[in-house]
Specification:
There is one protein chain. With 234 residues, the protein is mainly α. Helix content is 69%, strand content 0%. The protein has eleven helices and no strands.
């Protein structure tokens, strides 16, 4: 078992170098020797901080994912604030920004592919469990926000929370495996506009209509969504 401090600067330096190497080549072409040479450390130093090379690469991949989507955490928080304030225009603007950013990330060089990052992470069981927990929490927040916006009439009738989240994430991630993503130029802003038109219909940013009034502003939480569903089914 590795004995090194998990929060040490040396350990993070090794991970930073691993992230660079993963962005430059396939992980199958990497080895402890290659990593140590690039990081200017001895193999003994590597094994002081990591139990195995696979664990190191899996953690580096998880950090690469967090680097790519770190800004998305700020945007879901902004969407939740818009819901708290009952501000549909802020909600639309923030969702559009999120969609543009997600599609922009997907247009990056193939070496930064989220699909490849996911595969590398889920190859390692210890990192996969932690990463899956992070994804579950993120999707719960997105789903709760989409459900609350739908109940307020801010999205078209067919745009349920599940439909919105699945459609958006499937499209943004799916571009990695579609040939058109490499042969054609699809501006992220144009893609965002298309999704907003589907999402809002006649209730979009250009509309002068006001959302349905509510006695109080609810926070978009999974428990709030579950409560609302129970009420609708009763």
């Amino acid at each position: 078992m590795a004995e090194g401090n998990p929060n040490s600067k040396t350990r993070q330096h090794i991970l930073d170098v691993a992230k660079i190497l993963l962005s430059e080549t396939n992980k199958d072409a990497l080895s402890v020797a290659v990593l140590c040479e690039r990081a200017h450390i001895a193999p003994s130093t590597f094994y002081y901080y990591f139990t195995s090379f696979a664990d190191c690469l899996a953690e580096a991949d998880r950090q690469r994912y967090e680097d790519l989507v770190g800004a998305f955490e700020e945007r879901i928080a902004a969407i939740e604030r818009a819901l708290d304030r009952g501000d549909p225009q802020l909600f639309y603007a923030t969702v559009r920004e999120q969609m543009t950013a997600a599609w922009s990330a997907g247009r990056a060089d193939a070496r930064y592919s989220l699909i490849r990052t996911f595969i590398n992470i889920f190859d390692n069981k210890s990192q996969a469990a932690r990463f899956r927990s992070q994804l579950d929490a993120q999707f719960d927040r997105w789903l709760a926000a989409a459900e609350l916006a739908h109940r307020r009439g801010w999205t078209v009738d067919g745009a349920t929370g599940e439909m919105v989240v699945l459609m958006f994430w499937a499209a943004s991630v799916g571009q990695f495996i579609l040939p058109v993503a490499t042969r054609r130029t699809m501006a992220p802003t144009a893609v965002a506009t298309f999704f907003m038109e589907i999402l809002t219909g006649a209730v979009g940013p250009e509309s002068s209509g006001e959302p349905e009034s509510e006695p109080e502003v609810q926070r978009a939480t999974p428990s709030a969504v579950a409560t609302a569903r129970a009420g609708e089914e009763s």
